[in-house]
């Protein structure tokens, strides 16, 4: 039994035990009668509230399920906070103290617990920006996206000149229904703040046509040697051809970029946008590439000032920047959908089968599918909890219910929060999944992280918010990944992981097809093991691992972009009177 399940199944009395049994045996109405009586006797008991929320979900009363689950979370969080020696009276009456408590729990990745304290801290007219952002992030990390968007909107309105407030709002919109459209609209609103900036005329750039010279290429990101860009960007930096491109990295601190295969790095972390743009313009960059978008640490204000004649967005942000000053947004072919260009201020540039290479860390030897030894199938997801929307939870529950004895492992650092574990667990139980079939794991560091994939028979990709690095880690370690081909380009990111493997059986057209494929794969363990033997080899043979070939195509794209600009510049100069 998992820690979360154990927390919900102590010796809590015959009546609550009976209600729990009624829910798991498909009698939610009978359970609710018992639970309402128990709640009347003990309204502050989070266990009763959790199971009442579950019974409501099992009856299909989803709105009541969600509101009751929030009430259970609040009761549970207060008990945990009090158990840590926090004065609840002061917590409720002192917003500054409540914010400090929220920060403390957030710092320990206990985001669901932190959100209760932050909520109290924000129950006043004037709230400091860091507190609003902490509250919004603590909600977002639980998957409470609508509430997070409301908090970030409040932060942006209260602090309209704070870039972080708008950036966090933009990122949260990814996870909303119609996220691509909503994000595009908000990104364009963000960009309007920069419409008055002086954009250099085409003729003001002195960059000569390429001829036989190398393209001067600039990459802008907080850091190239650490964080999530490392496994994608390092292969490109190492394979750039100095005869074709001269690379400059514009990072926060050039001295910290040890071990990066770039001949030149410039520090812009302490420069404001105007000064950073002036430095880039002075360097004579031909093509300036943003790798970070509207995520924390991004420098799109620099791009708004157009310091290079050609500007593009690539790698970490497949959504639009909203800036007409950015000329191109790079996608791979599988992201092509009708109307995609309508949601982008940039011109979409399709690069081919993959959007980037991926270099896995040193991997353990391949293992057989674990169901051969265990006798049951283990599904797994190492994705951020924000990606587990109601559609995904319902589909994964249907899969578990369709494969008797199977298990689901969820691994992410925020599952260290007992409250989030219980809330997540009850969402599955509401669909008829027994509590001990959903297991939570804490994060691991290498090499144990890669070894943990030997526990997974089939990785499940959420939708319409697919995984990224975790999905690539799965297939790189030989674990089949089932993904759903979404309707917009953001929901098709999983295709960029699976399509290059040439294993079409791992791509579903819609949710019914997704469930059917997962159940069919799990019911034939020998076939699942045979599929596992193909996945790692297919990944290693895919374009994701052709680092030199991909880099050559990327260089060609950048050179072609600049060539189009050069041709247009020449034409405009010729047309002058």
Can you tell me about this structure?
This protein is of the alpha/beta class and 577 residues long. It has three domains: 173 residues, Serine Threonine Protein Phosphatase 5, Tetratricopeptide repeat; 141 residues, Rossmann fold (3-Layer(aba) Sandwich), CATH 3.40.50; 174 residues, Glycogen Phosphorylase B (Rossmann fold). It is 48% helix and 10% strand. The strands form two sheets. It has a seven-stranded parallel beta sheet, covered by helices on one side. A six-stranded parallel beta sheet has the order 10-9-8-11-12-13, sandwiched between helices. Helix 2 packs parallel to helix 4, helix 5 packs antiparallel against helix 18 and helix 9 runs parallel beside helix 11.
CATH architecture of the largest domain: 3-Layer(aba) Sandwich
Poorly predicted tracts of residues:
1-11, 571-577
CATH fold node name of the largest domain:
Rossmann fold
Q: How big is the Rg?
A: 26 Å
Label the structural class: alpha/beta
Q: Overall pLDDT, averaged?
A: 92
Given the structure, what is the number of helices?
24
Cα shape: globular
Oligomeric state of the chains present here: single chain
Question: Ends: how far apart?
Answer: 81 Å
In what range is the share of β-strand residues?
5-15%
**What level of helicity do the residues show?**
40-55%
The main sheet comes to: 7 strands, parallel
Number of strands: 13
Q: In the CATH hierarchy, what is the superfamily of the largest domain?
A: Glycogen Phosphorylase B
| Structural domains: how many | 3
CATH class designation of the largest domain: Alpha Beta
């Amino acid at each position: 039994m998992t820690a979360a399940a154990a927390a919900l199944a102590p010796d809590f009395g015959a009546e609550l035990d009976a209600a729990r049994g009624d829910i798991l045996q498909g009698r939610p109405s009978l359970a609710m009668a018992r639970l309402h009586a128990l709640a009347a006797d003990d309204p502050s008991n989070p266990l009763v509230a959790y199971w009442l929320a579950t019974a409501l979900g099992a009856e299909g009363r989803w709105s009541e399920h969600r509101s009751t689950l929030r009430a259970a979370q609040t009761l549970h969080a207060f008990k945990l906070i009090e158990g840590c020696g926090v004065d609840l009276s002061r917590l409720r009456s002192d917003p500054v103290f409540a914010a400090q408590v929220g920060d403390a729990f957030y710092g320990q990745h206990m985001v669901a617990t932190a959100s209760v304290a932050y909520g109290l801290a924000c129950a006043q007219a004037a709230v400091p920006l860091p507190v609003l952002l902490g509250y919004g992030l603590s909600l977002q990390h639980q998957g409470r996206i609508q509430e997070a968007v409301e908090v970030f909107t409040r932060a942006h309105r209260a602090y309209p000149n704070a870039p972080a407030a708008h950036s966090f709002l933009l990122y949260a919109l990814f996870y909303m229904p119609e996220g691509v459209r909503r994000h595009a609209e908000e990104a364009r609103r963000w960009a309007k703040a920069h419409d008055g900036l002086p954009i250099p005329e085409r003729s003001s750039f002195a960059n000569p046509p390429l001829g036989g010279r190398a393209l001067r290429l600039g990459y802008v990101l907080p850091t190239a040697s650490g964080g999530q860009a490392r496994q994608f960007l390092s292969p490109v930096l190492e394979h750039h051809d100095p005869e074709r491109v001269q690379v400059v990295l514009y990072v926060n601190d050039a001295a910290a970029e040890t071990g990066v295969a770039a001949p030149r790095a410039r520090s812009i972390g302490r420069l404001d946008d105007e000064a950073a743009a002036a430095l880039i313009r002075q360097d004579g960059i031909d093509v300036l590439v943003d790798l970070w978008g509207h995520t924390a640490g991004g420098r799109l204000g620099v791009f708004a000032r157009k310091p290079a004649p050609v500007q593009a967005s690539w790698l970490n942000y497949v959504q639009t920047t909203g800036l007409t000053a950015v000329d191109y947004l790079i996608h791979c072919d599988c992201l092509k959908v009708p109307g995609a260009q309508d949601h982008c201020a940039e011109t979409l540039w399709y690069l081919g089968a993959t959007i980037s290479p991926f270099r896995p860390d040193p991997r353990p030897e391949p293992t057989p599918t674990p169901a051969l030894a265990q006798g049951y199938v283990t599904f797994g997801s190492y994705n951020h909890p924000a990606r587990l929307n109601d559609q995904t939870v319902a589909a994964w529950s249907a899969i578990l219910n369709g494969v008797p004895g199977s298990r689901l492992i969820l691994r992410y650092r925020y599952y260290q929060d007992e409250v989030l574990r219980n809330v997540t667990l009850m969402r599955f139980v509401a669909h008829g999944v027994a509590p001990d079939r959903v297991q939570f794991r804490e994060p691991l560091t290498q090499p144990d992280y890669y070894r943990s994939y030997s526990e997974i028979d089939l990785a499940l990709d959420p939708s319409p918010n697919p995984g990224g690095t975790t999905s690539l880690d799965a297939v790189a370690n030989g674990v089949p990944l089932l993904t759903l081909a979404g309707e917009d380009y953001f929901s098709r990111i999983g295709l960029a992981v699976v399509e290059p493997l040439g294993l079409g059986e791992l791509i579903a057209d819609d949710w019914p097809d997704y469930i059917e494929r997962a159940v069919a794969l799990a019911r034939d363990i020998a076939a699942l093991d045979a599929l596992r033997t193909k996945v790692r080899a297919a990944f290693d043979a895919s374009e994701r691992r052709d680092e030199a070939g991909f880099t050559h195509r990327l260089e060609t794209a950048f050179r072609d972009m600049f060539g189009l600009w050069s041709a247009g510049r020449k034409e405009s100069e010729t047309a002058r009177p």
